[in-house]
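ARCHIVE CARD
CATEGORY: sequence design from structure
SOURCE FIELD: tokenized fold
FIELD CONTENT:
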């Protein structure tokens, strides 16, 4: 599959979560969940489950509920991760744990940095990347399951001759990522706790972006430092307000701790997560129905209490002495022509012209 393969003849990539998942996530795909603990792309994860995807290999540097949900729905076959949240202490368990013990899924355990390094290398087109050699002293290095001999290699540095531990660059099939805002073409802006999100998305052959809001391109242009993923890499844009609930999206809403507490109780009990999946995913046709069900069950006030208080950052000044090329009379000093003369040249020539500059 080619990276960034989009619908020909259309600049807008906006579509529903259903269409995006249908088009870009086949059964058996390798999927990178690209958010790091916050802004988790739950609307897209729920759609994977709703469409009953099978045989997925999931890359997740650090997970909260999403791996448990995918395991409980029977969507995931293999997981490569560094961490998955476990609530409740010794008495509790999770669907992820039960799935591993029952051999329903296979897991490769890595450290946070080594997962990141594999995705980082893949995003940059490198076949491998060095990691800290202290990993050799751990079971993360010694115990190998899914990746086998490709989990780590030890090579000699061409500059010092010393041993260097390296990991393989990986390029999963598709990334799912949730951001604050995106334009219709796919320029995705994200701020806050970014973690590995940039590389976990850019490493992939396809990228599905869900966002709190689709905005005009001018907004993206006026804040370019917030653009995490450029449009030419994005395949689908899904506008999903509250698309990361019950996780946090900085500037939009907080963690829904009460909802999460209820999830953890259900997740600790065998069969509990299947009840959760039926109520909140299978019985809800889309994210809108999910939110309506939430408000019917708990009231709209409880949802709205999660809204973030405003704390805007100070704007950056992108001004330049050469910001305005044409003066008020339509002259351009750098090119030595008027705007009307320039337009006639473009119309007649239809190409970029090399200008000879006289030395003064």
């Amino acid at each position: 599959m080619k990276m960034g393969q989009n619908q020909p003849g259309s600049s807008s990539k906006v579509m529903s979560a259903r269409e995006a998942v249908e088009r870009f996530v086949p059964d058996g795909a390798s999927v990178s969940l690209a958010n790091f603990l916050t802004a988790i792309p739950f609307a897209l994860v729920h759609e994977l489950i709703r469409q009953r995807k099978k045989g997925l290999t999931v890359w997740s540097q650090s997970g909260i509920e999403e791996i448990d949900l995918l395991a409980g729905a029977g969507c995931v076959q293999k997981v490569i991760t560094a961490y998955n949240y476990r609530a409740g202490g010794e008495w509790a368990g999770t669907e992820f744990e039960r799935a591993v013990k029952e051999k329903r899924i296979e897991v490769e355990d890595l450290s946070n940095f080594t997962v990141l390094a594999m995705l980082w290398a893949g995003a940059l087109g490198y076949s491998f990347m060095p990691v800290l050699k202290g990993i050799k002293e751990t079971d993360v290095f010694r115990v190998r399951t899914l990746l086998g001999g490709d989990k780590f290699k030890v090579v000699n540095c061409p500059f010092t001759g010393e041993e260097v531990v390296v990991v393989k660059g990986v390029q999963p099939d598709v990334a799912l990522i949730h951001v604050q805002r995106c334009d219709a073409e796919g320029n995705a802006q994200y701020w806050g706790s970014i973690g590995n999100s940039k590389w976990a998305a850019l490493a992939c052959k396809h990228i599905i972006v869900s966002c709190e809001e689709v905005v005009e391109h001018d907004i993206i242009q006026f804040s370019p430092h917030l653009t995490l993923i450029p449009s030419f890499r994005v395949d689908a844009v899904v506008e999903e307000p509250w698309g990361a609930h019950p996780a946090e999206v900085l500037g939009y809403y907080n963690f829904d701790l009460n909802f999460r507490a209820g999830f953890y109780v259900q997740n600790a009990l065998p069969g509990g997560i299947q009840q959760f999946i039926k109520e909140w995913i299978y019985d809800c046709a889309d994210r809108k129905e999910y939110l309506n069900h939430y408000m019917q069950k708990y009231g709209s006030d409880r949802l709205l209490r999660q809204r973030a208080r405003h704390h805007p950052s100070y704007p950056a000044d992108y001004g330049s002495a050469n910001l305005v090329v044409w003066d008020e009379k339509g002259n351009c000093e750098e090119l030595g022509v008027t705007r009307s003369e320039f337009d006639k040249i473009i119309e007649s020539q239809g190409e970029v012209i090399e200008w000879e500059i006289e030395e003064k």
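CARD ANNOTATION: The longest helix spans residues 112-124. The chain has 13 helices and 14 strands.
SHELF: design records, drawer C
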